[in-house]
Amino acid sequence: MDLYVIASSCRDPKQEVWAARCRDELYARLSGVAFVLPPLRDRLEDIVPFRKRFILHYGAELSQEVEALEPKVITLPSNILMLAVSANGRT
């Protein structure tokens, strides 16, 4: 049986092992392939493509077409969930 696990953390797993808040054998098993994805606030160029994708998704889900966004609606969210929620119009 093949098993793939994708795990994420906002903390450094190595530091958590060192501080005894994460088991070292768990870290060893999960750290087969690791990559760091900076937070959305550090990747401002990604906001527009994500926002367009969420607008298209929720527009189709709600059977509505969005032609443009008012400037006051376009904000800089601190994470991807806030971006999705704001695109959904349920802010």
Task: Name a few traits of the molecule.
91 residues; 2 domains; 4 helices; 41% helix; elongated
Number of domains: 2
What about the largest sheet?
none
Strand content: under 5%
The H-and-E topology, N to C, reads as HHHH
What shape does the CA trace take?
Answer: elongated
Helix content: 40-55%
| Class from helix and strand fractions | mainly alpha
How far is it from the N-terminal to the C-terminal residue, by CA? Answer: 43 Å
- What's the mean pLDDT score? 77
**Number of β-strand runs:** 0
Given as residue ranges, the uncertain stretches (5+ residues, pLDDT < 50) are: none
Query: Which value, in Å, is the CA radius of gyration?
Result: 18 Å
Number of DSSP helices? 4
Structure, described:
The chain is mainly alpha-helical and 91 residues long. It folds into two domains: 1-36, no CATH class; 40-88, no CATH class. The protein is built from four helices and no strands. The chain has helices spanning 13-18, 24-30, 47-61, 80-88.
